[in-house]
Sequence to fold (210 residues):
Amino acid sequence: MISEVKRRVVRPREVLVVDSFLRASTCKRMLEELEDTHWSRSGVSRLASGHEYSEVQANFRDSASAQQLGFGARLKRAIKRIEKRLSEEFKCDPAHLEEWQATRYKRGEQFKYHLDGGHWKDSTAGDRKRTYLIYLDAPEKGGETHFRALNTTVAPKAGRLVVWNNLLPTGFCDHAMIHSGLEVKKGTKTTLVTWERERATRQSTRKKGR
Fold:
């Protein structure tokens, strides 16, 4: 189920799509900034024995990623503005957000069906309760985000924001939110993504008394 664009409340098992969340000119500048960022083969993070580690799983995820730590100053400022908007529109505390990740999919690349939540309950910050995904560009063909159990497909479009909950109201992983970044058939897809955790992942930027 895709909820209405004007709605800013994300209920369980809904996929919220917000078009023109970023202007085309903003997407273009961010893509230019990302050209000077270090890209490496994408990995899949899991929590093991209380410690986070990354593992590249062949035949599961084919893409390249760049981490916020390596972003330039201008790109980091743009990220701060995005976080401010998310805070205003979704009542999201930026302190609960993971560091952002840019991902680039070329022709033939994809991210097979997976869940964003369900792996982090024992971590200090808790599980990934919500996903914020922004398309910075769109391939000529393919690259849709498909929610298999919901029978819902979201096409990539520059500036489009997609938001969904990964947890049920009980706090357990919602397996109905299994999704895939479908294979890019022609062109390139670049995304920005972060995950909102149950508790803080970094020092809060909110002023005391607010």
User: Anything to note?
Assistant: Helices lie at 24-34, 73-90.
